[in-house]
Fold these 2 entries.
Entry 1:
Amino acid sequence: MTEPSTPTRDVTVAAKPPGPEQLANRYTKVQSRDVNVYYGEKHALKHVDLDVYENEVTALIGPSGCGKSTFLRCLNRMNDVIDICRVTGRISLDDHDIYDPSLDVVQLRARVGMVFQKPNPFPKSIYDNIAYGPRIHGIAHGKAELDEIVQKSLERAGLWKEVSDRLDQPGTGLSGGQQQRLCIARAIAVNPEVILMDEPCSALDPIATARIEELIDELRENFTIVIVTHSMQQAARVSQRTAFFHLGDLVEVGETEAIFTNPEDSRTQGYITGRFG
Amino acid sequence: MQTFIVVLALLGFAAVGYTMGRARSIMTAGGTPKGLHSLPSYYGAYTAMWIGLPSLLLLAAWLIVQPQIVDGLVMGGLPSAMTEGLSSSEYGLLLNDIRNVATGNISSRGDDPAITAAAARLSGLHDTGFILMIVAAFGIGAGGLAVARSRISPTLRARNTVEKVINVILIVSSLIAILTTVGIVLSLLFESFLFFTHVPFYEFVFGLNWSPQTALRADQVGSSGAFGAIPLFVGTLLITFIAMMVAAPIGLLSAIYMAEYADPRFRAFAKPMLEVLAGIPTVVYGFFAALTVAPAFRNAGESIGLDVSSESALAAGVVMGIMIIPFVSSLSDDVINAVPQSLRDGSYGLGATKSETIRSVVVPAALPGIVGALLLAISRAIGETMIVVMAAGLAANLTVNPLEAVTTVTVQIVTLLVGDQEFDSAKTLSAFALGLVLFFITLALNVIALSVVRKYREKYD
Amino acid sequence: MTDATSFPPGTGSGGRPTDPARRPLVVSPHLARRYARERRFRLLGLASVATAGLILLILLGSIVSKGYSAFWQYNVDLTIEFSAEELNPDGGPVDMETLRRANYLALVRDSLKREFPDAAGDRSERRKLYGLVSPNADIVLRSMVLEDPGLIGTTQTVTIKLSDDMDTFAKGYIDRNLPEGDRRVTDLEIGWFDHLNSEGRIHAAFNVDFFTQGDSREPEEAGIYGALIGSILTLMVTLLVSFPIGVMAAVYLEEFAPKNRLTDLIEVNINNLAAVPSIVFGLLGLAVFLNFFGLPRSAPLVGGLVLALMTLPTIIIASRSALKAVPPSIREAALGLGASPLQVVTHHVLPLAMPGILTGTIIGMAQALGETAPLLMIGMVAFIVDIPQSFTDPATVLPVQVYIWADSPERAFVEKTSAAIMVLLGFLVLMNAIAVLLRKRFERRW
């Protein structure tokens, strides 16, 4: 494994492939080894080994039902919510097994945040939506600090200018793209290390999508991001590394540029050239 | 019973008509159904309708009109000395006596020869009317059969006609619901209007004293009775409040537990259990309240030096609350399940625990639905009758002390209308005024609750 | 860099650790508090469900423990002299009419007097002695003699019911250790009872009369048969009226009705009717069926009509959801073959929806079976001994019988009431079980 180190900060261009220095300094934030997921009898994910590097965007692509969302939900144990779901293998965050019984799932999710396919703001005010996470985790002490967190989070999600004058209005009243940025702001308000995004743009129009993609690239500076996407263009635009799933197998993983220009596996080739999926 | 047999016979006649119409249609088409516009069975149904509809309608009209005519004839035949100057209630009593004698029951005036004669006349007319009715019904049925037979031809669009008639029948069926409401409103309004000619409206609505027992003789004390309904309203609200204090927390928390925590095996056991609680007739709860809960509360109160009435509002309210628990929990369960999973996921994704998610996301999101459910429960508690009839008091105490006996609107309706009564007295009519209040309050609660719940459902659909 | 708890977001550095050890996956003390709250909340929910369950147990337990003993009855074997002087005082050939009118109670009383000659002197003691057995004991003797007039002049051992107080005593509900003034039976009566009991002449038997007789003022004679028949007649009317109308209304609203103001109104109306207090339906029945149309009071016909109006919304709502569950593809397929809309409904949609409709109907009928309040309004609360024979005979129904008995002061009626409730609940369980079976058997997922 690579030594943990401070990566360089000069990466500003969207989806710019990491340079050689960076490649050498990569720190494995999340590591999965031989991960299997079963839904009752169904073997949904088979023997997945995948490393997610810090301060990079890792895209998970593949046809519907290939297991990419399932894998994503393993990373912050959202599968726990589903009764019949069973996970084996090892997933570690900073070398700690996240399925270790002594580990607390609530604590884990505070560190591994999530943004969902459909924007799901709580039926509360914009302010309360953002403040919810800090409140339950006891992050903020006092109103002033909470106000600051809310403002900073909205600013980083690029939503502050649009909503600063109506923080007390319901979050459900925003447009779809705004709602999704609100959800992103809500996730970063807890100050996670990793943000998981499950097709965050699939319910949005192209302009809102572009806005979110820009945001993802900005967020990469401070967070590690794993994104599931249906759109190969999106994966190419925002990610540094891409993993291709097919029928529960992790077929291929590598630098995004390499995957899209020179895939090793014929299935990957078939998918990205549009033969199936 | 006899009428029932006549109805069955008419239906049998229509069935015969069905086969005749069928056969006739095939015959007119030259022995094969090929040339017919519709299937032969439609010609059969066409004929059956021509027989059944007019004759059954006639039967219904006859049954409504005949008693009035017969009564009129019988009373008209009495010596004028007996009927002159009778008030409408006395007239009714007399008629009732005649009817009793005619059916062989004992009557106070059974030995009066004029009454006996009138009774004989009544049963005679009754029998004649019955025979005439049968003849008329079957006559009109036969006429229908003749019309249908003459009309059946291969070009008759039997199917369209039959379907049109069925459509009308369907519409009439669905209008019954409206008719019921109209019936309720009109009858309550009419009787209440009569009541308010006896007792001023403001006295009923704002009066603090309720004692409807009008005295037998006009010169007795309190002969007019007092009809101030405030003690009843307060009593009803008190018991409803106690019931909701029991039902709302237990019902809601049960619903939350069942929807969010319970595993399927626990649900498979607990849901039917709550359904059993919901399926128990209210009279059983009343018995339970009167014989088990009220004495238990009384004894418990005695042991700590409290004077608890044996018909305390507390006992009735608590048992009513128990009855409403499954109602609250099943409605809230639906409402909570309608909260989209994505909201829960959003909260879990931020690292919230289950109870934090429930309290800060699920319940607030479901709040309108929960409020609607609680309103429906309140409406139910206000209208509940048997528990309070059996476990609450009769005396209209104006108090909010749950350890004392209070009475409710429904209790008074039952006491006023059960047993011997003369219609038109203020005492009897006051029950309808109370019924009117009850109907409109529950109606308002239901309309609000249903619209709140509907809006809520639309939001998440 | 900062640690997890004091880190203010948005300071630019993010949560990226330079050293994994600085952010250990260890639970903070704050979290322990949150989990304690979680456990408390969960426990509260479980406690609520458990409370509901406990109450149900107490309710059923109290009814069963009070009522199970009503299913048997204590009797006493008495030697009865069918003396000819008493039964046929004029002598001569036996005349049925004379036999019917003879004083059979005297036979019972003579027998008791022979049994306990000491009590014969004092009037109040004598009355107590006669009170050992049911005041209706003569009916048994009369029917014996009418069946076989040859019994006259013979002496027979006849099994006769104990009176309600003695039966209650025999069942152990009256504590003989209480001071005499505090209990319903006196020491004298207990002495007689013990004497008869020591001779083995008191024994319990299954209380057949409870299931075969109508109501009575005497608890030991009272049965539920009349109320049962009344319930059946009433429910027949309810079913005959509400099922066809309910299904037709549902079919119209779901399959044919245009979407307009009127159908909206009907829809709102049905939902509201379902929540109108049942007693209001009783007022409707009283004002419209009894006073306006002049139908007979206390009749199953009127009761059935009132309950039909009350169950109609239940049936309509259940039928509509059953119809809604039939997928549109089936309708389209049938329409595509040229079936008329009515044919589509009668040939395809209704048969598929029928299990759901029947389930809803049975549930509605179960509700109607347990309903009491509206029937009180139309006079079905009268004391009726005779078994109703037709839809217009005065009758009562099971739940009203429960109400009447619950109001009676005699201790023995408590067990009768509880037993009647057990029978009523038995029927409800049966109906609901059928509904559940139907649903399970025909459940279909599209």
Entry 2:
Amino acid sequence: MSEPVVEFRHISMQFPGVLANDDISLTVNKGEVFALVGENGAGKSTLMNLLYGIYTPTGGEIYIRGRRVERYNPKYAIDQGVGMVHQHFMLVPSFTAAQNIVMRKEPKKLGLFYDNAEAIRQTRALVEEYGLEVDPTEKVADLSVGLQQRVEILKALYRGADILILDEPTAVLTPQETDELFAVLRRIVAEKQMTVILITHKLGEVMAISDRVGVMRKGRLVNVKNTSEVDQRQIASMMVGRPVLYEALEKTGTPGELRIEVAHLRCLDERGLPAVRDLSLSVRSGEVLGIAAVEGNGQSELIEAIAGMQHIESGSVKICGKDVTNRSPAEIRAAGLAHVPEDRLATGLSAEASVGENLLTGRQREKRFRKAFDFLDRSSVARYAGELYERFDIRGAGVDAAAGDMSGGNMQKVVIAREFNFDTPVLIIAQPTRGVDVGAIEFIHSRIIEKRNAGCAILLCSADLDEVFRLSDRIVTIYEGRVTGEFVTDQVTREEVGYYMTGAREVAQ
Amino acid sequence: MSERMQQRLRYLAFLVISILLAFGIGAIVLAVTDHEPLAAYKAMFQGAFSAPRHIGDVLEYAMVLALCGLACDLGSRVGIFNVGGEGQLLLGAIVACQVGVWLKGSPTWLVMVLAALAAIVVGGVYAFIPGVLKVKVKVNEVITTIMLNTVAALLCSYLVKGPWQSSSKYVTAGTEKLNAQYWFGGLIKGSKLSTAIFAAAVIAFFIWYVMQRTSRGYEMKLIGQNPRFARFSGLRNDTVVILCMTISGAICGLVGMFRVYGAEHIFKSGISNDYYFEGLMVAMIARYQPLTTILLSLFFAALKIGAEGMQASAGVSNHIYLIIQTIIIFFMAAESGIFTAIENRRMQKAARRAALARREGGTDNE
Amino acid sequence: MNDILGRIFSAGTFQQMLRSATPVALAAIGGSMTEHAGIMNIGMDGMILMGAFFAVLGSFLFQSAMAGLALTLGVGLIVGLFFALLVVKFKSDEFIIGCALNTFALGLTGYLSDSVFGASGAKGNPSLLVVRLPFLRKIPFIGTVLNGQSILVWVTVVLMVIMWVFVYKTPHGFWLRASGEKPETLRTAGISPERMKWIASILCGLFCALAGAYLSLGQLSGTFSKGMSNSRGYIAFACVIFAAAHPGKAYLAALMFGFFDAIGMRLQAYVSSELTQMIPYIITILMMIYVVVRQNNRRRAPRKLQGMAKS
């Protein structure tokens, strides 16, 4: 009854220094929704990119409908009926939806010229057939993210795909858009007998839509189950290897005076669209305020606006009572702020510079490192860096190695070591443990609480709800640039917070 | 640390191979055009080292290349590319020269100090403009500086044919000749080498020291490596970038002054033949490292002066020098690309072999 | 004053404008291709210079302008391939390669010119066809402007239209633009963006060769002089930036450059030609500032998203 469409046989993929896929064997059947779950970096996307021919596996073979894949390139995969909707959309922003959809198989006039009318007609036909409403003449740059995703799906369908891979499709969608997407997926599987492979790390979605689920961890496929036979908790423990059981951290002291005051803040995102809309919050000394929000709801802009990395349109920010609205990062740091940014590689460090130099940054003008004639005393720098290296349990090739060569967790520790060691009265921390291994997470969490107990005012922003609950004294939920709810951590459930995060309920402040 | 050593060794090996290959290709070009390559290269070597005056010329040109290269290093360290050194050099030279002409009769020290200051100010301002445009308006500095080069060249050409033209009928396009009391003292008879090289050495040392040994140099490096991180950590990128660009231009202006007061003693079109561009390419080959820039300047200066000697003695066009130089640049610019291409191929093979071996091992176990 | 205006807006000015604009336009059309493919091509000046030299060399060796044209197109092809090899295949810094290419062209053409033609250079080789249409002569103003221009002036207009259609009306043109704007899109569609970049480089090499051929074989009577590209490659580059790589607009930008160049020549009696020659360069800088400021403003404006996300 179940007819295999895709078979992976002993697939391995070795990147320089990383074994992304390790001897994976897996069969996906016709007409099913197969969910592939795992943490960031577990190798899900790599496996699917192999199926789509982006990479050539370094070991093993893939069979599509029983035929061995001979050449690993997207053209071959497309011809075999494989379509992929990437996490970052593969659309040309200045082209229209129709132009994007027909790319590579453009209808032509006189055998030479692009036939715009025909492209639009064919796109409309697809739109009708699958119920994915999109205006073919609209420029992709002007479409919302949800519509852009539809264009991606239409593109795959136009190319004749009947095996559709979706890489974390809901990460950028609103709940309503997610529901619509799932409705479409159900329809194409039921009516057109298509096969859907869904890469995700949201377990709720796995339960909602998939027939079977495969769990990956550190490059290996650890388990494949019928979705009906497992529950979320079981999948989660397969994903992380052991159940996530955080020990409670000891919190002492009581909140003191106001240290961060944000009032009626408005910011635009990089595209010039409103990202933060009339947002107010405050943090006191000796407390952690956690921000719970789905990615892309203005929390990044908020954090950066406080730190001086983002222009503020209106409203005000005060650090330790001092107005720092639209001041430079230097001035805001002088007012008493240290900042662990969400993207350590883009903002938090210099990958080319050595670990020692990264640890030094911000202190290079201090007397102990700077001798006469502005001479930078490398031996004192090495001593200082070495001490931090030890204290923050950084593991790598020493303080002289390039920071970019370290693992994500150790890079993060470098950033945290540097910023925490400024001993400022205010800390803002974004995504403290993104892409960080479990051992390091524990270390980082206890450091954050240590800071809190020592009287630091901490604003924490994390995509990991468990983390927010574990560290925060209070939680605010942000949706579309507005605060939708404010809670005391002990008095709220994560279901409740999840509800407010998605904008399901808005409360009057 | 060993990884850094390894990188340095790789760089050195690639540099040597590039130079050898460039000379090899140069030999083919020579042979094709009916010249004896070995004889030509011998003439080139002699042209650079056979007499003290040749060595003097090599040092003079090395000074020009090194200062221009260092000026380029200074900009690229903070992530701005000063391509406009040529124009800054020309304007610095002509203004410095004219200061000497105007102040004829004033004490030597006064004239030279004022000339140097004028060159610094003019060169600096001429770099400041594209610097501000880059930082504040985000106009590509490469294109603006290229345009400003041509504007400067045209302006100089206008001045030496018009308002600042020499009254001597032997000079068609040039300023008045400088009074000999204002010249930098000659060091080797018959060569262009002058005491200006001591001033240049001090400047070069200063640039090296600031870039490699100071906390400001460290801040510059951060800005160049990751400007966002630098701003995040509290540095004022904009100011630093504009300042570095301005100093870079000031150095170029000063090189112009050295050329006039040390070597030519007059401003005419030959004051610089795209010398800055050669310095820039030396800097690029040196991966914008100050010390390497200085060392490579000596090498390329010898190559150029040698090529001029070769033209005189063996009748081979000295343009061969540009061909050899640019071939080295092509190789050095493609270095990492060629290296990764080779590396990738090797790695793919190794991985495939490993996977194969593992699978065979696996089936054995079963 | 009337005299000056009369000189500026005389037929001679526009005739000269076309002459000055054509090589720049040809290079700018080629540069539009690399620009669309996401390559900042600063090496057009060297490409033009080599084009100029090899056109004369072919014309000199075979005593035929057509042979010169054929040879220079062949060399242009090789130069384009070489540029792509370094920039696309080996992913070298395109600015450095462009810069080095300019110097290399200076060295190579200088060396070969010395070796082949001797110090005096080559003069009086067959040059390209000049088009004189009888019916045009009867039209007063336009006749003077258009008649007696090199065939390449006409060819340039045709090529401009062809490239315009190619870029904006054919699938391959779409792929070319996508290869610069979002190469991953092509890769996931099973088209190699690198291949489009190679094609763009080759086209640019060919167009610059034509530009060079016009300089040496189209304007003067088959003469090459060292460094005769005279920064036209940079002006062409500025035209590309100004025109957002649109071949038609790039042609107009080149015409504007030609116009100011022509005014400079016509007004020599009143102003030093060096000063008037500066105008296009200064205009180019102002042009760039204007373009960038306009782009920045557009980015600020809500809901209007930037199509060309350049540099």
